[in-house]
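Lecture notes, unit on binding sites. The following record was shown on slide 14. It pairs a sequence with 2-oxoadipic acid.
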Amino acid sequence: MTNPTKLEIAKLLNHAETSCTEVEQISVTYPDMTVEEGYDIQHMIMSLKEDAGQKIIGWKMGLTSVAKMEQMKVKEPIYGCLMDYMMAHDGDQVDMADFIHPRVETEVAFVLKDKLFGEDVTEEDVINATEYVVPAMEIIDSRYKNFSFSLADVVADNGSSVRFILGSEKIDPKTVDLGETFAKLIINDKEEDTGYGKAILGHPATSICMLVKMLSKRGIALEAGHVVMAGAMTKAFYLKAGDKVRSEFDTLGNLAFTVKD
Ligand code: OOG
Ligand code: MG
């Protein structure tokens, strides 16, 4: 795949996001597209967004649990980029008009106080570089029809990133066992799913370690102040207008958001 082709795809996917319109999977037209080419496209989308004045504020891991890989029919974790316009907070309202076919999942987010870079980073380094962790949720919104994609497709589409919601409780990761942390995802008073932190590659810090290693291969570091999402503890559920969404954690507190009626 040539660079002009990748840039053309980056523009197409970026436009699909900003205009809330779904597109055909890229792999239908380019069946030989590799995951690495998918990342090239993802990074081009971020450059387009930076040119438009948006800022990178962190990164996310995705497809880190067996449940998510089975749900999305892919076999390995991926990363995506988080930008300033994607951030929301406990109690906020989101609007279906900003999305195509959004789904929500429960997550844990790390906020860093130190830079992380390199291929030999350890879980201990991740914990030491973390200022605090917060309970979180992510809204994902694949730009592809029917929310279906190959691994290279979803990588090119920035891991379906569109919004993330941060809780207000700031927890020192040294005071909780993030692997044993348990959470419920509740939509309109119905408990849709539950999960443990250890569903995320055994431990959320292991997922962040993997992210650091993957980004290091491209010369990119996690920076102090970055928000880093470890991946979903639950499966993802479709949202609709008027939904009231809540995640309750046993050791990290709760957070909620609503979808505009
Ligand atoms: C890809 C993004 C997955 C997660 O936490 O597993 C993700 C998708 O399922 O559309 O963010
Ligand atoms: Mg996610």
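Take-home: The longest helix spans residues 3-19.
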